[in-house]
Amino acid sequence: MTPTTTVSSPARLADETAQGKTTIAASVVQKIAGIAAREISGVHSLGGGVSRAFGALRERIPGGGAGTTNIAGVQVEVGEKQAAIDLDIVVEYGASIVELARAVRRNVITAVERMTGLEVIEVNIAVNDIHLPEIEAAEAIPAPVTPRVE
What we know:
Blueprint: E1 10-12, E2 23-25, H1 26-38, E3 43-46, H2 49-60, E4 74-78, E5 82-92, H3 97-116, E6 119-131, H4 133-140
Helix pairs in contact: 1-3
């Protein structure tokens, strides 16, 4: 693999011509991959519990969510011609994890390659949690409290 850049550094695109060159920031690849992963039915969210908690905290801080290039659950390495992507996902209970991972991988590769022209050499997917809608709904409705005294 060619030398990689961090999320904050731009990567050069392979089609540098006499008329100029095109650069694509790694954060752009990161956003494309995150959106493409979320498009697949059965993906509840991206990121593990800790990264989701930090993301929620960052959004509550004034100016903390604006312009941020760090997408929870999406890490990328971008070279001059290639990209590698790591995803941390939370799946809906009942979804086939194997089929879901295949669909996410295919959608991410298609979107990134189509939009950037970079060759995606790998998409690693880590399933960190399963979302259980019944438990979330039960926690949202507090149980009635009966007074102990009259």
